[in-house]
Amino acid sequence: MTEQAWRGCVVPDDLLYDVDMNVWVRTEDDVVVLGMTDVAQTMGGQIVQVTWRRAGRTFSRGRPLAVVESAKWVGPFPTPLTGELLESNESTFEADVAIANRDPYGAGWLARLRPTNFEEEREYLVDGATALDRYRVLIDEHEIHCYRCTQ
């Protein structure tokens, strides 16, 4: 995995991004893995709780797959793609609720989804270089400096 960074905010090149939703997407055959971007976990602060949606249901683009609560924010984790929720990373978060703060692109993934409209909704996703360009504007405007929680 190669990555680029701006003010400490990492954006891996091998993922797709919905920058407006602050969600990354990794394709694995007919399934996608979803998680919070480094910028999202930094803006929210240390995660203290996640409320999960039930697997087996279909969710439309933009609907929450979980509700994330951090030290300074509570909000939805939206899906950038319509599809069936196959799995949530609930057991990992139960063992270490701040895993997305330490490893947002690895062990801190939030959901696995089987997209049902990928070809049409792919237009909302951008590659790593484009995501970094768009994040640079946001990072500079809000003077964001990404960090990873250590505890």
Feature tags:
single chain, 151 residues, alpha+beta, OB fold (Dihydrolipoamide Acetyltransferase, E2P), 6-stranded antiparallel beta sheet, 3-stranded antiparallel beta sheet, 5 helices, 11 strands, globular
Per the CATH scheme, the topology name is OB fold (Dihydrolipoamide Acetyltransferase, E2P)
CATH class, named Mainly Beta
Number of strands: 11
Shape: globular
CATH superfamily: RNA polymerase II/Efflux pump adaptor protein, barrel-sandwich hybrid domain
The assigned CATH architecture is Beta Barrel
Structural class: alpha+beta
User: DSSP strand (E) fraction?
Assistant: 35-45%
| N-to-C order of helices and strands | EEEEEHEEEEEHHEHH
Low-confidence stretches: none
Structure report:
Strand 8 (64-70) and strand 9 (74-78) form a beta hairpin. The strands form three sheets. This protein has a six-stranded antiparallel β-sheet with strand order 3-4-5-11-10-7. Strands 6-8-9 form a three-stranded antiparallel β-sheet. Strands 1-2 form a two-stranded antiparallel sheet. The chain contains five helices and eleven strands. It is α+β, with helices and mostly antiparallel strands. The chain has helices at 38-44, 90-95, 99-102, 118-121, 128-142, and strands spanning 3-6, 9-12, 16-18, 23-28, 31-36, 47-52, 58-59, 64-70, 74-78, 83-88, 111-115. The protein has one domain (3-140): OB fold (Dihydrolipoamide Acetyltransferase, E2P), CATH 2.40.50.
